[in-house]
Amino acid sequence: MSEKKLVFSGVQPTGNLHLGNYLGALKNFVSLQKNMDCIYCVVDLHAITTFQNPKELKNNILETTASFLATGLDPNKSIIFNQSSVSAHSELAWIFNCVSRVGWLNRMTQFKDKAGSDKEKASVGLYIYPNLMAADILLYKATHVPVGADQKQHLELSRDIAQKFNNDFNCKGFFPLPEPLILKNISRVMSLRDGTKKMSKSEESDYSRINLKDSADEIVKKIKKAKSDSESIPDNLKSLEKKPEALNLLNIYSEVSKINLEKALKEMAGKEYSFIKSKLADLLVSEISPVGKEINKLMNDKAYLLQILKKGTEKASIKAEENLKNVREKVGLI
Ligand code: TYM
What we know:
- Helices cover 54% and strands 7% of the residues.
- It is mainly alpha-helical.
- It folds into two domains: 212 residues, HUPs (Rossmann fold, 3-Layer(aba) Sandwich); 92 residues, Tyrosyl-Transfer RNA Synthetase (Orthogonal Bundle), CATH 1.10.240.10.
- The strands form two sheets. It has a three-stranded parallel beta sheet with strand order 1-2-3. The chain has a two-stranded parallel sheet with strand order 4-5.
- Strand 1, helix 1 and strand 2 form a beta-alpha-beta unit.
- The longest helix has 30 residues.
- The chain is globular and about 70 Å long.
- The two termini are 29 Å apart.
- Bound molecules: ligand 1.
- The site of ligand 1 has 24 residues, from strand 1, helix 1 and helix 8.
């Protein structure tokens, strides 16, 4: 079966987009828009699965939109919109709530991580979050989904939902089985304070991450303070893999200097950590600072950002309504 390729991905507007979002997802979004039809969504309904201050949420929806634009997404090439403005996402999510199985959701490790030790107190929305994510993707019959490694399990669930829907309603091939596009080298950027944890917005210490809006001084300070050790940088991959913080710095360095890890390791082997830190800080300042400045500039023109979202919503709605109509028909809704 030959199906038209379509890219869909989403980012939660929960503030402080960081280097992990940038290297693991946003940069890939930008390169995919060159050759493919792409839809990029600010997933505000996902954000409210944990409580968001309404004023901050509004601001964060615009700031995430600004971050999309600042990293190079072009609203004339890609559809950019916010999830809650196309109500078909919620409607398809409900239908998927009835297709997806409790046993499948019980296996989701991200729910376990986010709900923490007291699951009884987690919102129901947080539990069924992956069903909404499947609805986001399948509402457009997207075939490719660029994400970081942390979203792999959710993508597998989307494929299971697509397959079960196609079986249950006897419509083989109706939903494509979406493929994750996970970058090989930099699928998981780790915390600068603990190389075994992923870099995340919710980590308490701001020193654990480089935010896209950090000033040059902050970037330099954070890289300088990044956890390392008193030994020199190993000269082989096997030893490097035993040092998660060093591996993380090398991985980031290889990504931003556009060389592979082996080459980066050759360049850095036997050197003090201060050497890689100083080079990495320079590279990150020249790559991230202009993005941060552009985000701030765009945030001074909220009317423009709202207009981008409105146009994107119009385009997304046409596709969404058409597909939802067909889904309703398959399910037997009048
Ligand atoms: P979110 O908002 O947590 O993250 C946005 C994107 O950034 C990636 N990412 C990372 N990549 C590498 N290293 C890291 N430390 C790191 N941290 C975050 C994420 O993998 C993601 O690609 N559930 C999704 C949002 C979503 C979605 C969708 C994605 C909703 N619907 C449909 C794809 C398709 C999420 O919470 O991403």
